[in-house]
Amino acid sequence: QKEVEQNSGPLSVPEGAIASLNCTYSDRGSQSFFWYRQYSGKSPELIMSIYSNGDKEDGRFTAQLNKASQYVSLLIRDSQPSDSATYLCAGGDHGSSNTGKLIFGQGTTLQVKP
Amino acid sequence: ETGVTQSPTHLIKTRGQQVTLRCSSQSGHNTVSWYQQALGQGPQFIFQYYREEENGRGNFPPRFSGLQFPNYSSELNVNALELDDSALYLCASRLDRGNSYEQYFGPGTRLTVT
Question: I need a surface site. Which of A29, A35, A55, B87 has the fewest CB within 10 A?
Answer without folding.
Answer: A29
